[in-house]
# Entry
Amino acid sequence: MAEEERRRRFSNLRSVRWRVDLGILPAPPEASVEEHRRAAADSRRRYVSLKRRLLVDPHVPKEEGRSSNFVVDNPLSQNPDSSWGRFFRGAELEKNVDQDLSRLYPEDGSYFQTPACQAMLRRILLMWCLQHPEYGYRQGMHELLAPLVYVLQVDIDKLSQVRKLHEDCFNDDFDGVPFPDTDMVFSYKPRKEPNWNLGDDNENNSERSSKTNTLDELDSDTKEIILLSDAYGAEGELGIVLSERFMEHDAYSMFDGLMDGGSGVVRMAEFFSPSSVGSSSNLPPVIEASSALYHLLSIVEPTLHNHFIELKVEPQWFALRWLRVLFGREFCLNDLLVIWDKVFACSNNMLLSSDEEYNFRILCSARGAFIAAMAVSMLLHIRSSLLATEIDASCLQKLLNFPTNIDVQKLIEKANALQSIAIDVNTSSSSFLLKRDSCEYDRVHSNHATSTPPRTPLHPVSESYWEEKWRDVHKDGTTPKESEKGNSFSKQLKKSLTQRLGLSRTESDPSPLKVLSVKNNARNSVRRCLLNTLSDDLGRSNEVAGKIQQDEFPIVSVHREPPMSSAEPSKSKAVGENVTVSPLCVAKLNPLKNSVVEPAHENATQRTKCIAEACSSGENSPVFYAASSGNEPENAQDIDSESSSVTSNSCAGDPVIDGILKDDSSDSNDDSKTIQDSEAASSDTSPDQDGIAERAVVSNERKPFISKLQWLLKLGRPSVEGNMEKSSGETSDDKQGVDTSCSSLSDGNSNNSRGTVKMASGDKKVMGTLKNLGQNMLENIQVIESAFQQDRGQPGPVENFSNNILGGKGQITAMAALTELRKISNLLSEM
Amino acid sequence: MVLVLALGDLHVPHRAADMPAKFKSMLVPGKIQHIICTGNLCIKEVHDYLKSLCPDLHITRGEYDEDARYPETKTLTIGQFKLGLCHGHQVVPWGDLDSLAMLQRQLDVDILVTGHTHQFKAYKHEGGVVINPGSATGAYSSITYDVNPSFVLMDIDGLRVVVYVYELIDGEVKVDKIDFKKTATMHS
# Structure
């Protein structure tokens, strides 16, 4: 409301309104003319003192007190303090500025190219750059300044028109005593009192020409113009708000207000700086703002956004110009003024409280949000032609040659609509992948699982490697299951992910896909085994590895989930179902136990899914992921989180499993050690509490599974065999199957695993282990098959394969699982 | 605001190897608009080096210069001032002010720059200025004891010229400044 009043108040005087918006003139709607005048005068005084200080003439003799040290102050002096040095630096700046000024608005004619205007612009820019040496002069600043000067000039022209029309109001009358004008023959002139109360003078008009000479008769706008320009009001001539003499001062104040943002959020100067000061991430602010643009676009118009990503069009290629000059180069001057009216009308105050998280700094104020929304609405305007482009060059060409015959009002209306979205997006924690586009990001926003976007630490380069692996495995582009996503945003996310996964990597540095990996981690974490043999590479590995070595963990310790390249959700489901059948537990376990150094993200995802299904279906058969993280820290994190989740959930497991656990624990120390290992692992290296919390949340769904997993860990011991026999007496056949399978696997693989475990660290070990595991898997498959063919419960060559139970119902599924196993083993053997 | 560098008598390579490092560090290209050199460089390499500092280079012939194409005297106009350039070995007695004044009247210049004595001198004389920038390398001279490397930088600004003298004394660069104002009426 107040804003509207302000608008109405100065609707004809752009320069005054802009000065109010930029914070130079007082903002409150009821600010009187005097206050405006005073503020104007103050700003002008500031400018003059600045000028005196900065513009240095080395010829001018110094003050008396100062001893001229010619060693310092000579023209050739390299001393940075010398006034000559400053002079030369100023000369350098001036040369740069002149280069740009000579090309400023050459078509818009004569005004900007006149020497007087050019000189003024040059001085203003020089002054600002000297005042802000950290920014220097950058191309584009002159284009920000030019419209400001233009509106000032326009208003002054308006003033002179008013002056012509209402000459009497500008007469120099002191104390109401009229000065006789030479050409005035009237005996009585209207009295002009300082407060412009001329209500009594109406009757004197009759002797005059048609000019009105009372302020009250004039429309309020003109009245305001006159009041603002009264040479005898507050602050005298310095306070004349619309003054030609002080145009330079006013332009400087406006420029400064625009560049500094008036203690608000959007500071244009930041867009010119290459450093990352002032942005919320480690990116230069303009890059971040460009990515904010893309982010908003992705929400509003995902198809166009994806098109951009496909073509690898980076936002800052065109957004840089748009943002730095506030669309100055895209629209003609008059349209630009309309747009800037709206931009400045939005307040620049920070909308968020200081401790709120936000995604983009630019979107933290209404003005910044409007700017972003304006850019997106421009993109939408040429959407169809953009979507028709095939290569990035043609797309960019269209973007950089924005059509000129457009209805600006429509664009602005659309931008208004988008503005609120932009603000909401800034704080939304249902986080999108902010890095879906190709900009380099360092911040990772957590996924939907948590309510606060944690700032995950920067992952090392290796993570991107796993990203690639994961994508390779997912050649068909299946997206990982998104278990908890329910809102449309996640669907969008999924879609973009799908598209994204099919794309080659962008030229950004490794960090971009961190979010993806984080998401994957969230899913995988649950599946990961707590055991970690090849953690030598990881910081924490020694302890755990040592423990592992002590405990002589079998395969389980070493391996990660196999890359189920061909694994699709359906298959995993099948596997999940297979889990119900005991021998299939072996099948299930085998792939799980295959250690692949590749990221098992997708596997984990599917596994989790199928496991979840299995759990939810009430199956008792545990699905164990004998996944051990390889050499990646993310795996470590996953494992840690998983271990933490396991430990947190351990008490929540099935009662049966608990019973088993208890039995097991009573049997061997190793078991307890296992748990201790995992706990230790988790406690030792739990780098990311957020991630763990995340995964804990995720893993809550999988409690039964986790407890079973834990059980598996225990079982994965050479001494498990004893446990196996014990547990074989347990109620659950499936569990027995698992046990036996574990034991069989352990038997088969323990030697290898042990050997590998004790080997030197490195990928070679993992590779060797993988190969071994593949072979073992194959063996186990054979075992299973033989078991199938033989009578029930009659184990083949593998000992301790007692009480194998092949549920009749499970045979078919068993076969399917076996085929799957085969594939996995093939994969592994290829490695 | 024209910066004019005046130097000479380097005698490279015969009597000196090169200009002092501290001088060379101060002479960066881009600041100076003109260079006037009194002579006795002596070799082409020095000429090229000076050319790299500023493209507008004026040299007169000294007796040891190997390039015989340099003129004996030269006059040029910079801003409001007319400058005259000569090596000075032609003017006998060497370094004598009256004789140099004769040369100045002959050339009809406001500022006369000569060398050969390897000693810095700046006179205000009959409405004009006679400047001897000395030897930029501090080369040996048979007529001067204890030669210090020196050169002169003139800042010509309208009707006023400020002469900065750079001398290397005891390894330190000392700078001095002299103001000259051209009187409205030219000396006859």
